[in-house]
Design goal:
6-stranded parallel beta sheet, 2 domains, 7-stranded mixed beta sheet, Rossmann fold, Quinone Oxidoreductase, Chain A, domain 1, alpha/beta
Length: about 300
């Protein structure tokens, strides 16, 4: 089968599509025939060497939508060949990612695919929606709580705005001025395109990774949650600081799929590329200004 990997770190030019053996599922695992797999900023980080290396090629890709092709001998009874599914294949440094024709994942990371969107759109859900949901869990805001989401027009930030609004929070979205209409359409009560004032919000979900600047906007004793492990600012003024480290969770993913099908969550696709054009897709992502996710289709 074909798979996108890096053997050296660098820019989009280091992404290679190579041939390798089709992986076999073990106990508690399923093999998925990939229909679509999203390209995320974390993949660019892997490509650039942010997470370090290994003794062999490193596979790319965390999100997958496709069809169960084979099931391990035990611990995966919930799934059978032919099931249409989505999953998060967690891990930055792994020999095979989802940017491939087939991928093996743990059965408990899998959820039935949404019925309301195609595989290309479904592939944009697992990593970003799970990150947003788990970040909101860390914030632990009550309905009516005041939340500022930075990067509100981005993939994680957009899901965070939608989920927070669905939970009854009072959401302010921070993004570029040109994105105001879009961010409000996600459910934001207020929109800002610049600094919001020191100590003016109860909590911040910092999807734009503004760090200390966003922390200053949180009131004394409030809450800040970032989205990049190891990149959180130091706590000040009694502000509780945390960082979400996304975890694969098939049950939670199934809940998010349900929200896609009910129209609460929207899946955004910025463009599609054949698997053989993985390097081209990386170059477009590196160019910036992408709204929605780029998706690879084997």
């Amino acid at each position: 089968m074909r798979v996108a990997v890096v053997t050296d770190f660098g820019g989009p030019e280091v992404v290679r599509v190579v041939e390798t053996a089709v992986p076999e599922p073990g106990a508690g695992q399923v093999r998925i025939k990939v229909a679509a797999a999203a390209l995320n900023p974390v993949d660019a980080g892997v490509r650039a060497g942010v997470f370090g290396g290994s003794d062999g090629p490193i596979g790319l890709g965390w999100d997958v939508a496709g069809t169960v092709d084979s099931v391990g001998t035990e611990g995966a009874a919930a799934w059978k060949a032919g099931d249409e599914v989505v999953a998060l294949h967690h891990g930055a440094v792994k020999p095979l990612g989802t940017h491939a024709e087939y991928v093996v994942v743990d059965a408990d990371a899998v959820a039935a695919a949404p019925a309301s969107v195609d595989a290309v759109h479904a592939a944009t859900v697992p990593l970003n929606a799970l990150t947003a949901a788990q970040a909101l869990d860390l914030l632990d805001l009550r309905p009516g709580g005041q939340l500022l989401v930075t990067g509100a027009a981005g993939a994680v930030g957009g899901y965070a705005v939608q989920l927070a609004a669905h939970r009854g929070m009072a959401v302010t979205g921070l993004a570029r001025a040109a994105d105001e209409e879009f961010v409000r359409s996600l459910g934001a009560d207020r929109f800002v395109s610049g600094p919001v004032g020191a100590g003016s919000v109860e909590a911040v979900l910092d999807a734009a990774v503004l760090g200390g600047a966003a922390l200053e906007w949180v009131r004394d004793g409030g809450t800040y949650v970032g989205v990049i492990p190891g990149a959180a600012p130091e706590a000040v003024r009694g502000v509780r600081v945390g960082v979400v480290e996304v975890a694969a969770d098939g049950g939670r993913l199934a809940e998010l799929v349900g929200l896609v099908d009910s129209g609460v969550l929207g899946a955004r696709v910025a463009g599609t590329y054949a698997l053989g054009e993985a390097g081209v897709a990386h170059a477009r992502l590196a160019g910036g200004g992408v709204r929605g996710r780029l998706v690879l289709v084997p």
